[in-house]
Predict the structure.
Amino acid sequence: MLLYEFRVVLPMEVEEYQRAQLYSVAEASKNETGGGEGIEVMQNEPFDMTGLKEGDEAYQDLSAAGKTFKTGQFTNKTYHLASKVPRFIRILAPKGALEINEKAWNAYPYCRTLISNPEYMKENFYIVIESMHIADNGHSENVHNLSEKDLAIRQVVNIDIAADVSRSDYKEEWDPKLYKSSLTGRGPLNAPNWKDTVKPVMCAYKLVRVHFKWWGLQNKVEKLIQKQEERLFTNFHRQVFCWTDKWYPLTMNDIRELEEKTKEELDQARVHGEVKGMVVKD
């Protein structure tokens, strides 16, 4: 198993990021859906684990930074993939195996996401992403309360949204070095040490555990998945910042209405148009 902790510093308040993230997830979902592929939202509803304990079917351990979270929003999604995975996996995988399930318990500022392939890989494949959002610039060393054993194998990756992007993913409208918010005055992030000087500031600490048990491919695929997670987190958070003027005026009620509308749009988009979004080039 590989254990990576990605740290993404952002020029915003922790409270603001909740709306920013949910808005951007909805928009990014539309950018990744079309031509028979993309995201299907099956559930999006509140959850409450008050009174549940370890061993109960619905129990999840939602804890970080010395806190335990019991309530929030639960989502259940299916990702219909093909161009999103390398060709060698498409060749090896049987029909239907490239559908990935994502369950997320968003107890903001903490969120736990479980990604799996229950129909084919079952317990041989899963990704667990634990996200904790704190008002600092990425220097907290053990936000996720890792054991000494986990700390020994954890690899920390600091993502600079203003600098770290591949040439193939670059889009001028999502460049934090060029963007300035007219509503907040934030940006552009063109100073080399912007993470140390910007106000307000927060960090998304995203701990990613990858398990892929397939003889001969395990190490290669686990490294590939972690690399794709880094690419996804980088591109997504560049969008989050450059969409500031779109999400900043919204309330949480506005966000929930947007999510419902987006679900309907995704259902239509999956059966029309062309494949869109972040594909894996063979």
